[in-house]
Amino acid sequence: MKKFCSLLLIAGAIAFITSCQDAATEKTGDNTIADSSEAFDIGKARSWIDNDNAKFMDEVKKGDSNALAAHYSPDAWLMFDNVEPVQGAGIASAWGGAIKSGMKELKLTTQDLTGNAELLVETGMFEVIGNGNKTLDKGKYIVVWKPENDGWKIYRDIGNSNLPARR
After folding, report:
1. Pick from 160, 73, 85, 63: nearest CA to 120
2. Where are the alpha helices (DSSP H) in the chain?
3. What DSSP string runs through 70-109?
4. Are 121 and 18 in contact (CB under 8 A)?
5. pTM to 2 decimals?
6. Could you report the per-residue pLDDT of 68-115, keeping only the tens digit for each?
7. CA 157, CA 106: separation in Å to the nearest integer?
8. How far is the C-alpha of 77 from the C-alpha of 136, rounded, in Å?
9. pLDDT of amino acid 52
């Protein structure tokens, strides 16, 4: 019940934050974020996120935890199932641990993207693949993105499994 209440509170806060729109910011042709007098374009943001997710999945296949960590903002939080949240240098270590534990591929499928020039909230499904193309885990995730000088970066990343708990 405590976890449910916490998730409900987080979801409410995200909904509140994403409903507050001010000065528009968008991706420019060189993949940087810049102020613009034009209205925020969620389609351009979706394109950025889709491209970044494709790179992310490729870096999982390569086993490059440092490249994975580079997708996160300096103040990001990564929250996997059944472990404490990690920040900073801990993000590369967490992804390194996931790769060492048998993750060979990560499939991300964005179901929804909402937000504004200040924050984006991506909701999706994931599948973790191991040796022999065996599914190790399936679940859902929420990623909060924020703009930085070199594009959108992951600010909060939480996912949890749809599989039954191990006994």
Report:
1. 73
2. 2-19, 42-62, 65-69, 89-100
3. TTEEEEEEEE-TTS--EETHHHHHHHHHHHHTT--EEEEE
4. yes
5. 0.77
6. 999 999 999 999 988 899 998 899 999 999 999 999 999 999 999 999
7. 15
8. 23
9. 98
CA 31 from chain center: how many Å?
18
CATH code, 2-161: 3.10.450.50
3-state secondary structure of 114: strand
**C-alpha to C-alpha distance for 151 and 114, rounded to whole angstroms:** 17
With CA atoms as reference, report the closest residue to 55 among 77, 70, 44: 70
Residue 136 in tokens: 């190790």
Where do we find the tokens 């991706």?
27
pLDDT in tens, 31-40: 445 454 468 9
* Distance between CA atoms of residues 37 and 14, nearest Å: 25
Q: Residue 118 corresponds to which tokens in the numbers above?
A: 């200040």
Torsion (CA) 129, 84, 6, 69 in degrees, nearest 10: -60
Three-class secondary structure of residue 33 per DSSP: strand
Q: How confident is the model at residue 166 (pLDDT cuts 50, 70, 90)?
A: confident
Is residue 157 within 8 A of residue 141, CB to CB? The reply is yes
